Amino acid sequence: MGILTWTWILVGITFAIYIGIAIWARAESSKEFYVAGGGVPPIINGMATAADWMSAASFISLAGIVSFTGYDGSVYLLGWTGGYVLLALLLAPYLRKFGKFTVPDFIGDRYYSNVARFVAVIAALMVSFTYVAGQMRGVGIVFSRYLEVDIDTGVYIGMTIVLFYAVLGGMKGITYTQVAQYCVLIFAFMVPAIFISIQMTGNSIPQLGFGGTGEDGIYLLDKLDGLQQELGFHEYTSGSKSIMDVFAITLALMVGTAGLPHVIVRFFTVPKVKDARISAGWALLFITILYTTIPAVAVFSRINLIETVSEKKYDELPDWFGNWETTGLIKFEDKNKDGIVQYVADESVNELTIDRDIMVLANPEIAKLPNWVIALVGAGGLAAALSTAAGLLLVIASSISHDFIKKMINPKISEKNELVAARLSAVVAVMVAGWFGINPPGFVAAVVALAFGLAAASFFPAIVLGIFYKRMNKEGAIAGMVVGLLFMSYYILKFKFGIFDGGREAVTGLKEDWWFGISPEGFGSIAMVINFVVSIVVSKFTPDPPHEVQEIVENIRIPSGAGEASDH
Amino acid sequence: MSHKEKMKEYWKENLRYLAILLTIWFVVSYVFGILLVDQLNTIKLGGFKLGFWFAQQGAMYVFVILIFVYVRLMNRLDKKYNVDE
Question: For A345-364, what is each residue's pLDDT tens digit?
Answer without folding.
Answer: 888 889 988 888 778 888 88
